[in-house]
Amino acid sequence: MSDESHGGSRNSGAVDPVGQGGVDQFHNPGLPHHAERITDKDPRAVKRAETQVMVLFIISVIGTVLFFVGYFGVGHSGIEIGTKLRLQNTLIGLGTAFAMLGIGLGIIHWAKALMPDHESVELRHEIAPESQRAEAQEIIETILEESGMDRRKVLRNTLIGAVLVAPIPAVFMFRDLDRSQLGANAMVDRLRHTMWAKGVRLVRDPSGLPIKASDVQLGSAFHVIPEGLNELKEGKLNEKAKAVVLLMRLPEDKMTVSPGRETWNVDGIVAYSKICTHVGCPVALYEQQTHHLLCPCHQSTFDLTQECKVIFGPAGHALPQLPIEVDSEGYLVAQSDFQEPVGPSYWERG
């Protein structure tokens, strides 16, 4: 039985058959009603908006200056290390935020309050090759005219100033990765040598209590620093950033030991650098069932049973192992320093 005999969709009006003039049944609503902004009607509002945009760009410049005050000025003061770091981080964070937000909010406010506010329809058409240059020039001139860059020179100059100084902090931060004049391998040398040496006890972070081999049980994990680090007056954080390790105990039958490392562990107790070899984040998560270490920054995963080999994530190098042994009193001590540089593997390793 046909669809028409049941009053099907073909005759119900629910479907508009092609070619039966259905398009003519829809009314073109046109463009919405244009509501003028206050800056379209009041010259004083225009001046006020220009001042607000200029102030936002100046705030961006002030934010950059604030960054430099925190980055360079606080570091040379004589205040206590903890207070200094909090103040420095606060100034750097606020300075960066003001520098970026000042530019962004200034440009947005400029576009919403001062640039022409009108609707337009531009039909698609092919551009002939010989007229492309003239068309491109016309587009650029239209952009400059609508943005008011030529008319509003004060805003233009403050914008240029803010944009020029905003990237400078990033340049100094990257440059400061190694300010040494010792040569290309200076950073590697810094990361190669830590406070670990033969006979240095492993102590808990941050209490400084020494650790006996009997304290380390299967499935446990200790955050460890070298004995004497807490007593340092200067350079404490730099030394800790290089020397901090994770101490764990594994079933010996699950361990893979490379030739030459047979004596680096004590009955399954192993110590590995806590600094991820991707970008230097602290590896802090230990999964005792799988014996995996996880870096929370970018999810690099290291297999403890395979000498912290990378099994997932962007890290390109296994965590360096610290050779350990037991002293005459039963405390865990280092046999030596790390046998390779700690930290990110993008540094040249020789």
Automatic annotation (TrEMBL):
GO CC terms: plasma membrane
Q: Does the keyword RNA-binding apply?
A: no
Q: Name one GO molecular function term.
A: 2 iron, 2 sulfur cluster binding
Where does it mainly reside?
Answer: membrane
Q: Which PROSITE patterns match?
A: RIESKE
Compositional bias (Basic and acidic residues) at which positions?
Answer: 33-43
User: What InterPro entries does the record tag this protein with?
Assistant: QcrA_N, Rieske_2Fe-2S, Rieske_2Fe-2S_sf, Rieske_Fe-S_prot
Rieske domain ranges (all copies): 242-333
The entry's keywords: 2Fe-2S, Cell membrane, Disulfide bond, Electron transport, Iron, Iron-sulfur, Membrane, Metal-binding, Oxidoreductase, Respiratory chain, Transmembrane, Transmembrane helix, Transport
Q: How does it sit in the membrane?
A: Multi-pass membrane protein
Membrane spanning residue stretches: 53-72, 92-111, 154-174
Q: Does tRNA-binding appear among the keywords? A: no
Q: Where is this region: Disordered?
A: 1-43
| Annotated localization | Cell membrane
- Which family does the entry's similarity section mention? Belongs to the Rieske iron-sulfur protein family.
Role = Iron-sulfur subunit of the cytochrome bc1 complex, an essential component of the respiratory electron transport chain required for ATP synthesis. The bc1 complex catalyzes the oxidation of menaquinol and the reduction of cytochrome c in the respiratory chain. The bc1 complex operates through a Q-cycle mechanism that couples electron transfer to generation of the proton gradient that drives ATP synthesis.
Q: What is this protein called?
A: Cytochrome bc1 complex Rieske iron-sulfur subunit
Tell me which species this is from: Galactobacter caseinivorans
